[in-house]
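Worked problem 6 (solution included).
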Amino acid sequence: MGIPSTQLYPIHHLDGQECFPGDFVVSGAANIEENQQLKHREYGVVQRVDHHGRTAIVHWYRTYTSADEPVPQMLNESEMSVYDLKDHPDFQYRPGTVVIRVANFTGEDANCTAGQVIDNFPTGRVKVWWVDGHTSMCWPQDLYKASN
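Solution. The predicted structure is:
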């Protein structure tokens, strides 16, 4: 990918607060917010991480509710302590995860119902390899994790 090895840092100790670009997260304070109806639809996508400073730049989104415009709404960008972030309870996609498409059946993806995750991207999308052999980018709410 063109990254000089001198710019890479070894991670010696992974713990529950480690996150990486493309990870889906929720705010650890989300359960104490006043408007639970809207807050349960909000999620973050990690953009960059300062592993030494234990902070992350996160883009915050709200899931879409209309099939007419199936694109999550970007709310804002914020720098947060990794201690204030939690893994998203539903969007737990990792390479190799088997998924079922549950929404947004459009275009060449109209017949794509099952596939395998290739990777998550900081754009907030998940790249999936479908059983028919082609790949596409999906929003996390379009998918359901079929395996553990």
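Discussion: The longest strand covers residues 42-50.
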